[in-house]
What we know:
- There is one protein chain.
- The protein is of the alpha/beta class.
- The protein folds into 2 domains: 22-51 and 291-393, Aspartate Aminotransferase, domain 1; 58-289, 3-Layer(aba) Sandwich (Aspartate Aminotransferase, domain 2).
- The chain has 16 helices and 13 strands.
- It has helices spanning 8-18, 58-71, 79-83, 86-98, 110-116, 118-121, 136-145, 157-166, 189-199, 221-224, 253-262, 264-267, 274-289, 291-310, 330-342, 372-388, and strands at 35-38, 41-45, 103-107, 127-131, 148-152, 172-177, 202-206, 233-237, 247-251, 322-328, 345-346, 348-350, 360-365.
- Strands 3-9-8-7-6-4-5 form a 7-stranded mixed β-sheet, sandwiched between helices. It has a 3-stranded mixed β-sheet with strand order 1-2-11. A 3-stranded antiparallel β-sheet has the order 10-13-12, with helices on one face.
- Strand 4 (127-131), helix 7 (136-145) and strand 5 form a beta-alpha-beta unit.
- The radius of gyration is 21 Å and the shape is globular.
- The protein binds pyridoxal-5'-phosphate.
Amino acid sequence: MAHPTLDWIDRELARLSDAGLRRALxxxxxxxxxxxxxxxxxxxxxxxxxxxGLAGDERVMKAAAEAALAEGAGSGASRLVAGDLxxxxxxxxxxxGLHRAEAALLFNSGYHANAGVPAVxxxxxxxxxxxxxxxxxxxxxxxxxxADLQRYRHGDAEELSGxxxxxxxxRKLVITDAVxxxxxxxxxxxxxADACQRHGAMLYVDEAHAVGVLGPTGAGLAEQLGLKHRVDxxxxxxGKALGAFGAYVAGQARLRELLLTRARTFVFTTALPPAxxxxxxxxxxxxxTEPARRERLHALIxxxxxxxxxxxxxxxxxxxxxxxxxLGSEARALATAAGLxxxxxxxxxxxxPTVPRGTSRLRVALTAGHQPAQLDAFxxxxxxxxxxxxxxxxx
Length: 395
Ligand SMILES: *Cc1c(COP(=O)(O)O)cnc(C)c1O
């Protein structure tokens, strides 16, 4: 066989399969929304981050096409070279407006933003303090910064305060998800901001799952809690509730100036394509002018929370469209997801390393396009599947 130097990959893939950790792609039909086509069957889609149903909104799709026709299929270069198109500036102004910040800077994805921004703010003489359940991109960004990386227990502002007090680092950076991607709960932002203030630390908040969902204007958790002025770096993505693609950091103008000069994941990559920016601009307008979408989503969240609580699942802290249905073992989570699929519901089992061992779960995500009756049908199917699980999958 050719490429014998890659033969080790067969052994590694077999090892991952044996451990139940092998991943596989699953193609879906176009334009997923409240429903999705998988292997020729229409299923209720409970695993999308398209929380407001904007990815398949005709107006947003048209805006993407119009932006491509007006400014090009690609940006042609990085922003700093010759890729700084008119639509980039327009979108940054709109994003700064949403966050009532001085400025915003686009990144090509939330992953790019979190991977590259910490290294601009801290280095070898400094320390990063990260919630233990923060998104993988934040962990990677902390590692790339070469700062001392310290984790605090999930949502534990008191432990954070102790770590900050003992730290002798030159600069201190606290990073937290606003809404945690696998648990759907919110960071205790006021307490974190107090700890940062007491110890002179910068506060960086990842609003990936909160933008478009939380706050009176959909600007996120900091807006909802009235804490915008206490967050130094507010990061958000355009790929979730906004239904497009890309990400940004909002904050002071001097922060933007430094990031555009120093963030390697901004400097060394081609600028976002106009289509993504056009879609995001239109989605922002819809978020601003159609608060009813957000209200509908929150009614569905309350409905699902009550239904899962009635079945004994601990979802009392969920503030977002993300519900953790924790089942324990990988086998139990996989069997439950498979049973739900047979009954017409598309939910993915989330396993280590995405979540801690022993907390394999279904991550049930809602979108404003769901009907309450679909959620009731899902809850009924969940009852059936859990009642019928064989003991071998009961771990
Ligand atoms: C999805 C996500 C990201 C990554 O954003 P992308 O734009 O999808 O790359 C970053 N942080 C959190 C908390 C996320 O959930």
